[in-house]
């Protein structure tokens, strides 16, 4: 704590006007909370994009196209299994020893794992057919472990340093890391695809986005090492209220908000991973069997009978073009993440999110109309979906931490957020692809899946309490 004071930018005045408690400046809070989640989500999305574009061929070269894709998505899902573990580990240290050091550790874990993926031999290299996928699983687990601890810490960094009546506004800063990280990751992939031949990209180009993460991590570490602990956590120390086992205290005394938070976040996760991973897969898939056969012939790899039998049509939009469409959609994600903060302050988190969740239900019910044939309709669908994503994701950094007292806030919000990732995010792409297969090219069942997630979230919000007026700073169990 004393060492941290060397980096303070200002102090909080006591009632007598004396400066007693070092605090972080607004600019530092905004930048540190946003840069960390930007890096974390950049690393996460680099893998997500690679799992669609290159990993099926490089790590599962002997499988059919659909089985290779499902295998890549299965490894993608490993991170979501790891995230609750990360929530427990980093939550424990965040509630016991402070937010600052925990945030630095989570960032290092993600950065090292992502960098090593960029150095990993593939299954096409002699002797690595089994080991390469296994190591990919291990490193993907480490990515999930890091993200499991990152989000909650960044949310607390923003909200525990927010002025009164501005928690939802400040909470949108770490949430902006998601769209910004996504855009950076995909711009790099587009640049690599545009400047390299297909062979160069498959040989080494796909590694560049993973290796570049090291630069971002260095910037993030520099900023986070200059932070001081929040007033909320300092009061936990002063009152001697630090829990010996934060997870045990959370599950024993605060299991209801854990359950509520898990389902409050569910529709957000399902929506996002359908809008990103699934739509990229569906959007770039050939629109007809004839188109698929022609593309395979052009590449010198005619389709096998198994590939013909398992073929389902997509939109047939060129890969780079669809990535640009995704980026346009994600711009709306970022804009409406910012918009959501003031609206959640004005109307309250619960009421605002009930309205947005109802919108997600309608969007799912109308999914077939926007993601049927037609590029224009798909672009409208991406804009609407990502607009809803910004509106639902923005307030989460306020409402989930507000469900818990300060001495278990890191653990409680992290466990709820990441348990939701297991139920919502981990299976979303896999289930969506299976439903797309089941519908033989129709995505109506994918929309129904999204609508069901919205119903569950709506019920959780309806049964929960409004948290806007929580005494955040003095709320210690």
From TrEMBL:
Domain Major facilitator superfamily (MFS) profile: 29-468
Subcellular location field: Cell membrane
Membrane topology annotation: Multi-pass membrane protein
Residues passing through the membrane, by range: 29-48, 68-90, 102-120, 126-147, 168-192, 204-225, 258-280, 322-340, 352-370, 376-403, 415-438, 444-463
Keywords: Cell membrane, Membrane, Transmembrane, Transmembrane helix, Transport
Tagged with keyword Membrane: yes
Chain residue ranges for the region called Disordered: 1-22
Main location: membrane
CDD domains given in the database record: MFS_ShiA_like (cd17369)
Entry-linked PROSITE patterns: MFS, SUGAR_TRANSPORT_1
Cited PANTHER family: INNER MEMBRANE METABOLITE TRANSPORT PROTEIN YHJE, SHIKIMATE TRANSPORTER
Protein name: MFS family permease
Originating species: Paenarthrobacter histidinolovorans
Source lineage: Bacteria, Bacillati, Actinomycetota, Actinomycetes, Micrococcales
């Amino acid at each position: 704590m004393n060492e941290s004071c060397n980096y303070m930018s200002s102090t909080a005045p006591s009632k007598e006007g004396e400066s007693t408690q070092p605090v972080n400046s607004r600019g530092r809070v905004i930048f540190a909370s946003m840069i960390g989640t930007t890096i974390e989500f950049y690393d996460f999305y680099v893998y997500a994009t690679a799992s669609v574009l290159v990993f099926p061929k490089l790590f599962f070269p002997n499988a059919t196209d659909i089985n290779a894709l499902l295998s890549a998505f299965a490894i993608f899902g490993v991170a979501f299994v790891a995230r609750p573990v990360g929530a427990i580990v980093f939550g424990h240290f965040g509630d016991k020893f402070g937010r600052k050091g925990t945030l630095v550790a989570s960032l290092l874990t993600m950065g090292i794992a992502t960098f090593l993926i960029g150095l990993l031999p593939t299954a096409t290299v002699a002797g690595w057919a089994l080991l390469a996928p296994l190591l990919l699983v291990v490193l993907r687990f480490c990515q999930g472990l890091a993200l499991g601890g990152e989000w909650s810490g960044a949310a607390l960094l923003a909200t525990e340093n927010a002025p009164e009546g501005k928690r939802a506004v400040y909470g949108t800063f770490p949430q902006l890391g998601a769209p910004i990280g996504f855009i950076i990751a995909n711009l790099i992939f587009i640049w690599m695809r545009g400047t390299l031949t297909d062979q160069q990209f498959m040989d080494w180009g796909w590694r560049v986005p993973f290796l570049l993460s090291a630069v971002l991590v260095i910037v993030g570490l520099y900023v986070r090492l200059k932070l001081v602990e929040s007033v909320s956590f300092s009061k936990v120390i002063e009152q001697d209220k630090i829990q010996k086992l934060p997870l045990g205290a959370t599950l024993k005394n605060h299991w209801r908000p854990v359950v509520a938070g898990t389902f409050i976040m569910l529709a957000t996760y399902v929506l996002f991973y359908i809008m990103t991973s699934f739509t990229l897969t569906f959007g770039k898939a050939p629109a007809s069997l004839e188109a698929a056969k022609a593309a395979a012939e052009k590449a010198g790899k005619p389709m096998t009978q198994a590939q013909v039998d398992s073929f389902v049509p997509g939109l047939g939009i060129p890969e780079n073009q669809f990535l640009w469409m995704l980026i346009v959609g994600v711009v709306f994600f970022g804009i409406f993440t910012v918009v959501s903060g003031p609206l959640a302050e004005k109307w309250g988190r619960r009421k605002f999110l009930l309205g947005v969740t109802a919108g997600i239900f309608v969007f799912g019910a109308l999914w077939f109309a926007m993601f049927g044939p037609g590029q224009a309709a798909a672009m409208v669908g991406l804009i609407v979906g990502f607009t809803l994503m910004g509106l639902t994701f923005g307030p989460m950094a306020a409402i989930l931490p507000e469900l818990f007292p300060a001495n278990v806030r890191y653990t409680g919000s992290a466990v709820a957020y990441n348990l939701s990732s297991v139920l919502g995010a981990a299976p979303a792409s896999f289930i969506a692809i299976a439903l797309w297969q089941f519908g033989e090219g129709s995505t109506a069942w994918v929309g129904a899946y999204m609508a069901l997630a919205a119903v569950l979230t709506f019920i959780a919000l309806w049964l929960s309490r409004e948290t806007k007026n929580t005494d955040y700073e003095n709320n210690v169990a």
